[in-house]
Write a structure and sequence with these properties.
alpha/beta; binds FE3-S4 cluster; 6-stranded parallel beta sheet; 476 residues; binds iron/sulfur cluster; binds S-adenosyl-L-homocysteine; single chain
Amino acid sequence: MDRNQVVIPPEQIARQREFEKKIRALLEARQRPCQALVETFGCQQNVADSQRLMGMLREMGCAFTEDPREADIIVINTCAIRENAEKRVYGTLGQLTHTKEANPQQIICLCGCMAQQERVAQKVRESYRHVDMIFGPQALWKFPELLYQVCTQHRRLFSIDDEHGTIAEGLPVVRESGVKAWVSIMYGCNNFCSYCIVPYVRGRERSRDPEEILAEVRELVAEGYRDITLLGQNVNSYGKDLPQPMDFADLLTAIDQTPGDYYVRFMTSHPKDAGEKLFDTMARCSHVAKQLHLPVQSGNSRVLHAMNRGYTREQYLEKVRYARSVMPDLVLTSDIIIGFPGETEAEAMDTISLVEEVGYDALFTFIYSPRPGTPAAKLPDPVSREEKQVWFDRLLDAQNRISAQIHAGYVGQEIRVLVDGESGDVRWPLTSRTEGGRLVHLTGDKSAIGSFVTAKIVDSNTWALFGELAEAAPQR
Ligand code: SAH
Ligand code: SF4
Ligand code: F3S
């Protein structure tokens, strides 16, 4: 698709700011200040999208609440990745029938990946009549206009048409902490892994202009952000669609030139496109954290082929070997699906053997969930849920042992960590992250938040490390 059709023209973006002003005027005419609630399900991409939605709501004059009974506007940003994610959203929507009964003026909006599916829109249209508006991820940038229509025309609104998707720059944003920030570098996915709904709901791959990304990173660093995560479904596809193509490694090199004391991380990297150039670049760039999330999904080449992943077990292992050869301290994590249709016990055990061979620092593990409309959902799936659960538990046992062992290896070391928040635990009041992104519960007081400090690691468990501040005065 032509780039001019993908990037929303600035006039269109400016028009949305006008709608924000109009809504602000409407809301100000009410007796009390408007309260909004944005509830987010799903991945970091959705978290980043919700920060934009909150930015737009703030421009409309809204304050934020966590209590749905107090909210005038409720936005549920949904995830469609597994059936459970969808069930939780329907549960939340069910509860909102009561808040809407108590406050018929309340406006309820459903957006995000689930909302983009016709099947869901249909169900909401018929069975969740208290929902005023549905829009997919592609329509997020015109939320003010859509909301204005709902406010003024008093009718339900469904906007889920655009299947390709666009890029909208310059939307207002509310970031939740002053330390960590998300920066989307691209949207959509073209990979069509056979189990996955994302390409159907997030549209085609679109890369933001490198200048826009660089400007955003520079601004964040200048504002004091210390930990910046670049987001994309497959960051390795970055740049293929740009008028002057550049690749993700080139983008990292350019970002790394931004001066300051910060780390930049990224997710997610698809193994089929992650190669030596990327790993060499990571190794070379001082701001790029030595952390890699490289989802393998399965350790069996037949299953990987059926998943349409585009690599074999051996090719994956070779990439890991190379990455570690240039970054010996690399922290490596992965996603795994157990129980893909037709997967045998022996094939699932191949996944466990791969996990043991790689020795990941941590894993995100899932039992396969059929997604209507994807090719895998049509495959015969003879293995029972109970049996899959047994394989899954074996995988968890293996990984828990490995994580505990790796974490124990940190004990006694002094390492540099970034203090990112409070934990609520009196013994370890602070939370912090290593360069590789591992969680360290820390002693000290909250004046250290936002600083890099040296922590002496004194204890560990399967999920985290525990440290004492080794430096009296943190340096910002
Ligand atoms: N773009 C990322 C993944 C996004 S979804 C990537 O390619 O790695 C996050 C994870 O959810 C996937 O890596 C996969 O492990 C899991 N997942 C996706 N679809 C699933 C399904 N139908 N059932 C179970 N897990 C699924
Ligand atoms: Fe889904 Fe595959 Fe795209 Fe990741 S790369 S979002 S798993 S289709
Ligand atoms: Fe879910 Fe959409 Fe992310 S389906 S995992 S919120 S891209």
